[in-house]
Request: fold
Amino acid sequence: EERAAVVRRVFRLIAEGATIRSVKLTLEREGVPTPKAKRFWTRPVIRDALFNDAYRPHGRAELEALVERGVLAREVLDRLDGERSYGIWWYGKDKTTRTGKLTDSGGPARRFSHRPQDEMIAVPVPDLGVPVEHVERAREAVRHNRSPSSAGHRVWELSGGVGFCACGRRLSTHRTKRPHGTYHSYVCSKTRQHGAGACEHGRYHKAEATEERVRDFVRGLLRNPEVLREKVLEGIRREQAGLGAVTEEAKHLHRELEAAKEERRGYLRQNARGALPDEELDGMLAEAAEHIRELEEELGALGARREQARTLEQREAMVESYLRDLTYLADRTPVVREYETVLTPRTQENPLGLHMLTTEGFRHLPDEELAAERRRVADDRARRWQELYMMLGLTVTTHQDGTLVLRWGGGEARRALAPGEHPLDPAQTAPALPDVLPNESDSQR
Reply:
C-alpha cells in the first residue's frame, strides 16, 4: 500500500499539470525510494509507470473486449467480480530471437524486442485505485513528449515536442562543422531524412538565433503579467464552458440508471412468480444489462468531466503562484566562475580545515574546465527554458520565409514573429492565424 500511494500520487501530479522532471525532483527531495529502493528516480521509470496497464482500471466492458480479441480467457473473466475494475498485466511482452551470429564469448547472439499486444496474454490484477480520468489525462499530457536532443554536445530546447515544421512534422537537429566553426540548425525531419526538396518548408533555421527569438517572446509574456493572466483565465473559462452543466447531467443519468436497475429487478420478480418464461427473461435481462452498461459508461465519462471541472477551479485559484513560478524559471541564471577556492586540508592541528582567504587561496580554472562549466550552465539553462515552454504549452512552427508561429496554452494570444520583429507587445494587434496547429502526418503520429 505504501508503494501504491506513491503510484497514485504520481498519476495525480502529472494529471494536474506537473512535468515528469518536477515529479522526479519532488520524490527525490522528499526521500521517497524508487521501486528498487534507490535514492534517485529516472524519468523513463515514471513514464513507463504512466503507460502500465496494471495501474489503469478496466471495467467489465473492456474486459469483455479483451476476451473477444482472444488475449483473455473466458473462464478467467467468469471468475472475476463483475462489479469491480481490474488492472491488466501483460504476460509474454518480451520477445527474444536469435540473430544467427555469435557473441564474443562464442554463444548465440540474441535480439530483444516487444511482441504485438495481440500475441500477449492479459492477466487481470487487483485495481490499484488510480482514477481512470487521472490515467487518461496523465498519459495524454506526456504522450508526445520527447527527450530534448543533445546532438552536437548541446541541449536543443526546441526539440522534444516544442518545435514543428509548417508541414506538421517535428523539427530535427543538424550540426555542420566548418574550418572556422561549428553551426547548429533546426530543420524539418523530412528534409533531414530525405535531403533538400523533400519538404517545401525545408529551410535550415540557425539554432541560437531561433531559440533567442522564442525566448524573447516568452520574456514578453512574462513582462506583461496582466496579459498572461487574462489569457490563462480566458482559456480556463472557455474549457469550463465546454464542460456544460455537469451536475444536472449527472442527476439525470443517475435517475435513468436507477430506473433501469428497478426494471431488471421487476423482470426477475415476474420470473419468480412464473409470469415470465425463462426464454423471454434471458433476452430482457441481456437488453437491460446493455442499457445499464451504457448508462454507467456515460456516468464514468461524466465523472471525468466533473473531475476536470474541479481541476479547472483549482487551476484558476493557482494562477498567481503559477505565474510566479514561470518568472522564476526564466530569470534564474547560473553564474560561471573562472576560479575556485582552494580549501585547506584538515589535519590534527587544524581539524576544522580553517584557512585565511588570500589571493593564494584561489585557483583559476584551466580553459578546458572553464569550457566544460560553460557548457554545463548553458545546458541547464536550455533545459529550464524547455520546461518553461512545456508549462506554457508552447509550440513553435517554422516557415520557409523564416517566420515563427508561436502558440501557447492561453489559446487566443498567438503571434507570428518575422525575422527582426520585436517580441510580444500588447499594443500590437496579433495577425489572423489558423485555428489549428498543423499536426503530424498519419505516418508520423
